[in-house]
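Justification of resources, computational component.

The compute hours requested in this renewal are based largely on the per-chain cost of generating structure records like the one below. Each record pairs the submitted sequence with a full structure-token output. That output is archived, and it is also reused by downstream analysis tasks.
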Amino acid sequence: MQEWANTHPPKTRAPAGRAMQRWVVPDEGWVKLNSDGAISKARGKARGGGDVLRDNNDAFLAGARHLLPSIVDPEATEILACKRALQVALETNVQRVHVELDCLQVVQMLNRQARNYSVLGPWIQEVNEMLQGFQEFKVSWTRCSANVAAHKLARVGVGDEFCMVWLKVPRTIF
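The structure output for this chain reads:
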């Protein structure tokens, strides 16, 4: 038995070389908005978005899933998912929002002070203008392992033909 155990090491959940990260509650008085975009190769490269808003008590405030038709760029998918999530946050009167994304390039674009002249620039500008509607905001990057809830909603959003928003804990999302 020991020989078998020596030749078959236990499986780990994280790929080698990648650290697992867990979701962390936001600071007191803040709402954390996790957003993610997803692409389905099986559905002709359909795109979707998913968003989750939780408070500093880890209480679910809102969630959404949506199909993002006609979007071909993965970063555009991430930006539009974030934009939709910010709309929900504004409509639910969130004052302090901590936006957490697992796409480092989008986080860098949103945090950059200079105007973005890329094809994504107009969407980046729209998101930055929406962020100004909050009393306070911050945008940060997180590993995919800490963005699982938003990712699962995004995957479901790829398969649906409509947007769905929850303002309380849903019985079932999937």
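The longest helix spans residues 74-91. Confidence is low (pLDDT under 50) at residues 3-9.
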